[in-house]
């Protein structure tokens, strides 16, 4: 298992995080190691695009689309684009127009006019080989009906949080890369989840995932998301996306609704194999069982053997999930975040079934509870919660790597 090969390495914090009280200097762009590339041959139609932007240090950013004409907009905090000509970006000729620069104090913006409607398929920020950080965005052409632009209620909810105060020592995984976290904003598309007026759980969780992504990226983690916009992703597809990205930790984000008075406060769920025995059997019956265990092909094995192998994998993965839940509760308590009277609970949710990736579901609160609802709409509460979760991830990662090292001895 790849998680048995985790190494305990020291990664020095980015200089911008060394002094919590000082605002970090603006990052700069390295055009020599940046580019825009298109996939496939030019046949006169929009092609998949990949933007690779190398900057001097990691910065929080958000991505969205606008129409009239179709444009990709990336807001950074912040990059000093002065002295960098957008038209000099290698591959600039692949798109109608590109511009960048500051647009308000502490914020920078990149606007890329597109040859047609697109969707964001990947957005990651990783350490760059040339030093600094690499922001990589993958765009795929879509039909006009699938072109999702900003301009809904979610826009009013989204606020940039302050950088997180994360420990300066981050463990790296195999190959020397930082810890990779998969964030799973619940629901989406034709499944809006819980709703209060015009605001849906799906929109709220997408906004919170973006805020948490920025804090984690600022701290040096790699982040992948199961969805970047308002689209429906099947439950087990979410696990597959996390596994394909090589995620080390999976966090699903929700804010459900229950009859008034029945539930309130943040809670964290981990897989409970006793909650529904059908879940494991159904998982084993799927035709693509080779996808369920990293490096282990279950095709050609009977269901009983597959069940045993998955249960065996969970005997080590499940305690790691529980350990993260405990770190999260500790950091949330320190941040003064109100939680359910039983903050760690078990459930047979589909997104927790992964036998090889530690997984939790964070119920940020309940839209049916007035106090929880006020918190979910409060930018300060969301920022504090995101910082606490980021600190928990850092502490858990160090503890998890240390335990893995002991197991090897």
Automatic annotation (TrEMBL):
<dbReference type="GO" id="GO:0008745">
    <property type="term" value="F:N-acetylmuramoyl-L-alanine amidase activity"/>
</dbReference>
<dbReference type="Pfam" id="PF01520">
    <property type="entry name" value="Amidase_3"/>
</dbReference>
<protein>
    <recommendedName>
        <fullName>N-acetylmuramoyl-L-alanine amidase</fullName>
        <ecNumber>3.5.1.28</ecNumber>
    </recommendedName>
</protein>
<dbReference type="InterPro" id="IPR021731">
    <property type="entry name" value="AMIN_dom"/>
</dbReference>
<dbReference type="GO" id="GO:0030288">
    <property type="term" value="C:outer membrane-bounded periplasmic space"/>
</dbReference>
<dbReference type="InterPro" id="IPR002508">
    <property type="entry name" value="MurNAc-LAA_cat"/>
</dbReference>
<dbReference type="InterPro" id="IPR050695">
    <property type="entry name" value="N-acetylmuramoyl_amidase_3"/>
</dbReference>
<keyword id="KW-0378">Hydrolase</keyword>
<dbReference type="GO" id="GO:0009253">
    <property type="term" value="P:peptidoglycan catabolic process"/>
</dbReference>
<feature type="domain" description="MurNAc-LAA">
    <location>
        <begin position="239"/>
        <end position="394"/>
    </location>
</feature>
<feature type="signal peptide">
    <location>
        <begin position="1"/>
        <end position="18"/>
    </location>
</feature>
<keyword id="KW-0732">Signal</keyword>
<dbReference type="Pfam" id="PF11741">
    <property type="entry name" value="AMIN"/>
</dbReference>
């Amino acid at each position: 298992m790849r998680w048995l090969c985790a190494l305990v390495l020291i990664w020095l914090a980015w200089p911008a995080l060394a002094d919590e009280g000082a605002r970090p200097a603006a990052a700069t762009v390295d055009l020599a190691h940046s580019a825009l590339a298109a996939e496939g041959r030019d046949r006169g139609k929009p092609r998949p695009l990949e933007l690779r932007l190398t900057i001097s240090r990691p910065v929080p950013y958000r991505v969205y689309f606008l129409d009239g004409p179709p444009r990709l907009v990336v807001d950074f905090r912040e990059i000093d684009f002065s002295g960098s000509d957008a038209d000099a970006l290698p591959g600039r000729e692949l798109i109608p127009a590109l511009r960048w620069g500051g647009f308000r104090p502490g914020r920078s913006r990149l606007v890329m006019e597109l040859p047609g409607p697109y969707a964001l398929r990947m957005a990651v920020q990783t350490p760059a080989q040339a030093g600094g950080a690499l922001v990589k965005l993958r765009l795929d052409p879509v039909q006009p009906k699938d072109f999702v632009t900003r301009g809904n209620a979610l826009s009013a909810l989204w606020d940039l949080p302050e950088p997180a105060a994360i420990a300066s020592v981050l463990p790296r995984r195999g190959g020397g890369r930082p810890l990779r976290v998969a964030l799973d904003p619940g629901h989406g598309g034709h499944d809006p989840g819980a709703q209060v007026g015009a605001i849906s759980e799906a929109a709220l969780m997408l906004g919170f995932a973006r805020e948490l992504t920025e804090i984690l990226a600022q701290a040096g983690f790699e982040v992948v998301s199961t969805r970047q916009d308002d689209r429906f992703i099947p439950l087990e597809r979410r696990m597959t996306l996390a596994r394909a990205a090589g995620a080390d930790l999976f966090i699903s984000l929700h804010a459900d609704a229950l009859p008034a008075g029945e539930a309130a406060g943040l809670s964290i769920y981990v897989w409970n194999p006793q909650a529904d025995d059908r879940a494991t059997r159904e998982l084993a019956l799927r035709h693509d069982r080779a996808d369920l265990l990293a490096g282990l092909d279950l095709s050609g094995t009977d269901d009983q053997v597959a069940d045993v192998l998955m249960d065996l994998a969970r005997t080590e993965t499940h305690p790691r999930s529980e350990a993260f839940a405990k770190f999260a509760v500790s950091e949330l308590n320190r941040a003064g975040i109100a939680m359910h009277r039983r903050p760690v609970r078990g459930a047979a949710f589909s997104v927790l079934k992964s036998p090889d990736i530690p997984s939790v579901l964070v119920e940020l609160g309940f839209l049916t509870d007035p106090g929880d609802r006020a918190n979910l709409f409060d930018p300060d509460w969301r920022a504090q919660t995101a910082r606490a979760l980021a600190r928990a991830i850092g502490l858990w990662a160090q503890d998890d790597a240390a335990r893995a090292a002991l197991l090897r001895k």
